[in-house]
Structures are given as C-alpha cells and as structure tokens.
Write a sequence for this structure.
C-alpha cells in the first residue's frame, strides 16, 4: 500500500541463516502488526507492537514510531518459516483501519 | 481464545449473480469485526469494519455491502457480482477498541467470478 513500503518483495534463505524484513511508513503510525500467510491463505499474527521490540522464539520485531519503520528479524531460518510476510500499520486516528504492506515472499531452502 | 468460522470455503459464481459470505465469531463477546479482500498474489485491502451490532463502516467501495445482524456474525454480500470481485475474502476480529489489538483472521473464502 502507499502508506506502507515493505521490502524486500521476495527473499530466499538457506536453512540456518538469518535475515530481516522491513516496513517503512510514510505517515504517523500508531502501531504495527506482522503476519505470516501460508500457501493455503491462512494468516497468523506474529507480533503486535505499539513501540519497542518483541521477541518470540527465532523471530524478533522492532517498531520505531519516530523514525517510521518496523523490522522483523528471522534467526536460524527453518523450512516452515516459508510463506508471505505482511506488516500492517494502524492509522493514527481511531478508525479501525489497518493498511497492509505488499508482502515479502520468503522461501527457505534446505 | 476466539475462533472464526467463515463460509463457504470456496465459491464459483457467474457475473451478475448475487453473493453472500458469512463469518461467525465464537469465544469473544462484542468483538470488532473486519472484512478484507486479497487479489491473487496481492496485498490485503480492508473493505469494512464493525464495532457493534448494526453498525458497519465502509473503507473501500467495491460494489459490496456488509451487515452485522448479530454480535457474533458478519455478512458480506452483493446483488450483482463483477469479474473484479474474484479473490480471497478474509474475515477478521480484534477484541478491543479500534485496531489497537491483535488482529485474528478466519481461514478465508476463495471466490472465482466467471
């Protein structure tokens, strides 16, 4: 989406390696959420951040509301990490609107 | 934890025919409810959201309408389908006010308009 610039659009990793995804926001963002979508279309919420960082297993996310960006780090990538990752930004006003990035297609190879 | 049931799982419909997609939430009272649309290979676009029964806000006009007849039910419909309506429709809920809470998605409905 225009408000959310997600990169890279595609990423290929070998098992055991690490990398990071990034979302830049063009307007003030109250919070950010990260999702992973599998091949069947199911979306799983990975993180919700209003500020700072959160970690869950091999995943770690950070949100800098002043510099207008968020990152998702994947450590020691596994085959099951493959999928499409989306970030979503919450509008600053309480309208219930989330704007999604265009997604990063992650492929983890043996 | 809440569960989100969407129906049908998939639909193949003719241009100009009517459509009704359903979503039921269990395990959470008075949730915020959302409809999202995703084109094949594309991003998610929010269509509607509802904070309470009988109240629906439209985010994007796509010749679709939504209704919330019950606290735990959200319906997406149209009287005449267009080819551009094809895609993946996802119902989502969040437990709190606005979008400040974690968003949970249903399994989705794949719609093909021919």
């Amino acid at each position: 989406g225009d408000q959310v610039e997600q990169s890279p659009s595609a990423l290929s990793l070998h098992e055991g390696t690490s990398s990071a995804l990034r979302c830049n926001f063009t307007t003030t963002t109250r919070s950010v959420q990260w999702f992973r979508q599998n091949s069947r279309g199911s979306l799983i919420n990975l993180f919700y951040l209003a500020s700072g960082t959160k970690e869950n297993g091999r995943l770690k996310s950070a949100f800098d509301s002043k510099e207008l960006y968020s990152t998702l780090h994947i450590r020691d990538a596994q085959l099951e990490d493959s999928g499409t990752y989306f970030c979503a930004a919450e509008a600053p006003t309480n309208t219930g609107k989330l704007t999604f990035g265009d997604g990063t297609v992650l492929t983890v190879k043996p | 934890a809440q569960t989100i049931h969407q129906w049908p799982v998939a639909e193949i419909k003719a241009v100009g025919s009517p459509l009704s997609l359903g979503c039921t939430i269990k395990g959470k009272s008075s949730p915020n409810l959302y409809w999202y649309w995703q084109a094949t290979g594309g991003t998610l676009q929010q269509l509607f959201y509802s904070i309470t029964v009988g109240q629906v806000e439209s985010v994007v006009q796509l010749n679709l309408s939504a209704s919330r007849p019950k606290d735990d039910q959200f319906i997406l419909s149209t009287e005449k389908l267009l080819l551009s309506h094809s895609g993946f429709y996802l119902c989502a809920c969040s437990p709190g006010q606005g979008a400040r809470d974690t968003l949970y998605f249903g399994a989705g409905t794949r719609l093909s308009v021919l």
